[in-house]
Amino acid sequence: MRLVTFTRGGRRAIGKIAGDRIVDLPATDPALPRTMRELLQAGPAALDRARQIDPGSAVTVALAEAKLEAPVPDPSKFLAIGMNYRKHAEEARALGVQVPDAQVWFNKQVSCVTGPYDPVHMPRVSDMLDYEAELGVVIGRRCRHVSAEQAPSVIAGYLVVNDVSVRDWQARTPTMTLGKSFDTHGPIGPWIVTADEVPDPHALQMRMLVNGEVRQEANTGEMIHDIWQQIAYLSTVMTLEPGDLIATGTPSGVGVAMKPQSWRRVGDVMRVEIDGIGHIENVVVAEPA
User: Fold this and answer.
1) CB-based contact 264:270 (threshold 8 Å)
2) Which of 196, 247, 242, 204 shows the shortest CA–CA distance to 222?
3) How confident is the model at residue 208 (pLDDT cuts 50, 70, 90)?
4) Where are the domains positioned within the chain?
5) What is the pLDDT of residues 24-74, one digit of tens each?
6) Phi, psi at residue 93, to the nearest 5°?
């Protein structure tokens, strides 16, 4: 099942994709929650209820007539792991960045979340704008102290992430948070592909294209710390909530590591594709005054 948050005619709702149409879940079944976080919080029974809706007898809208929003527009947490692909870690070392043995985590503040096809702002305060193609994980139930073996059971599904980064601001603090959290610098989507439809999240081909040119390409099986290990590590520290987002790392090919370094400019189009999940595409625009 592919779950979306969409807007049509000034109304925001959640739905599931059925071919070239969106099944409007709460309009079809008023017993279903009205937001994605509420749907995930309602648990497997609500997801099964949504899954069983027959598109032929449902309230639907044309996909082409709706605006897809961030599938989870209001996560309580947006966590991202750094240097989790070997070649990318080598890039970091070449730039003088220390690469520890332990998992390296930072926050993307949730105010950065934006839609799969929304513009990304070029900050007024920097011209060092960069991209990072990543597979995103959406947590499906409240959990703590989850073992790696248990981790698949707490995942609602997967989506595409561009961990947009402002490199000079990222370098200002060891936490990296400021450089990762500018408004609009967390495009996600285009939908949540539920976990039952992703047989192996560690066998997905992923790529980043800038203006049609491939800049990054890797398989998610190349992660240093796999998704199960990531969830086990994070849940040792904190409670994970339904709708929380985890960005699982980016491969080599980022602009900061190129020679010469390559920064995004106004008008550039960044497109992240993950086979079996979908794609997001965002144009860089000047930050509004």
Assistant:
1) yes
2) 204
3) very high
4) 2-68, 78-286
5) 999 999 999 999 999 999 999 999 999 999 999 999 999 999 999 999 999
6) -60, -40
